[in-house]
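Key result, reporting period 2: structure in, sequence out.
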């Protein structure tokens, strides 16, 4: 399917690895010009090289910086001549017991998973509307739909973003060609998931493979998702074909969520 977004400019945040990278690759394959960000320069450079090697006609730029800071966002925006497509992403907050989280932990989670995406939306959507085309995809989490107690920081901050987006997506921006949606990953095979599995392995004395297999067995598809599958869904949401799709929370979890809706 021709996605109709060749030559558009995309800012894909937190994209040297994992799900963000999956989205950047899928967009670049469509000939989209892509600006990718991450804090670590080494992995970022490798990803920029991989994106360029696709040779699909688009330009690729890498910006090293922390997207949860004003300076990091300003540098990312400065590298993107215009933002037609914004993919919001950042690292997830750590798990834990809410009794041990002080105000600083909450502020860090809100900065990363609620306020940074809102700041980037604020900086870009009015210009998108003026041009009559815009796509915002926020990478959130399956935990927004099915909260996990030890992920309280994530549940709280991402739910705040989700509530904000639900209103904004239905504002006058919608009639001016700007769609805003959230993609909710279940368990995807990325560094983040491997770190979580390694933590459980060290706590229980079992191997990472064993813990991973046990977790995968709870998913109807009996496996973890792949970042390229996540990227394909993101690219579709950014396409001309998804023009009538806005304000949605789309779960990609191999069927793990057990409800009808
Ligand atoms: P990942 O494999 O660890 O990759 C995270 C990427 O984001 C890296 O490129 C990292 O590079 C970058 N990054 C992290 N914090 C950043 C920051 N403050 N500024 C700029 N770049 C930053 O993680 P992932 O699995 O793709 O997860 C992406 C998001 O989805 C996270 O919020 C995660 O909690 C959420 N999620 C993931 C899963 C899953 O199963 N994988 C499930 C539910 C939700 P640097 O470290 O160099 O900055």
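The corresponding designed sequence is given below.
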């Amino acid at each position: 399917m021709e996605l109709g977004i060749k030559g558009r400019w995309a800012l894909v945040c937190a994209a040297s690895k994992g799900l963000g990278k999956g989205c950047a690759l899928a967009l670049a394959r469509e000939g989209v010009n892509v600006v990718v960000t991450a804090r670590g320069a080494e992995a970022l450079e490798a990803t920029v090289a991989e994106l360029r090697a696709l040779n699909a006609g688009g330009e690729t730029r890498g910006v090293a910086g922390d997207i949860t800071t004003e300076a990091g966002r300003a540098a990312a925006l400065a590298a993107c001549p215009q933002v037609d497509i914004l993919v919001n992403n950042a690292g997830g907050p750590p798990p834990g017991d809410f009794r041990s989280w002080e105000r600083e932990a909450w502020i860090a989670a809100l900065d990363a998973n609620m306020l940074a995406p809102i700041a980037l939306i604020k900086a870009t959507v009015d210009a998108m509307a003026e041009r009559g085309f815009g796509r915002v995809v926020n990478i959130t989490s399956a935990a927004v739909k099915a909260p996990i107690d030890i992920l309280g920081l994530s549940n709280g901050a991402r739910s705040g973003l989700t509530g904000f987006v639900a209103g904004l997506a239905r504002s006058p921006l919608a009639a001016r060609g700007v769609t805003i949606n959230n993609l909710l990953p279940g368990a995807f095979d990325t560094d983040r998931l491997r770190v979580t599995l390694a933590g459980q392995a060290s706590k229980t004395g079992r191997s990472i493979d064993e813990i991973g297999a046990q977790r995968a067995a709870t998913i109807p598809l009996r496996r973890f998702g792949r970042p390229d599958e996540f990227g394909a869904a993101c690219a579709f949401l950014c396409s001309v074909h998804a023009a009538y799709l806005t304000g949605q929370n789309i779960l990609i979890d191999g069927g793990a969520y057990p409800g009808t809706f």
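Residues 14-20, 37-40, 43, 66-68, 89-92, 112, 139, 141-142, 185, 187-188, 190-193 surround NAP (CB under 6 Å). Strands lie at 9-12, 33-38, 60-64, 85-88, 134-139, 178-185, 249-252. This case is discussed further under Risks and Mitigation.
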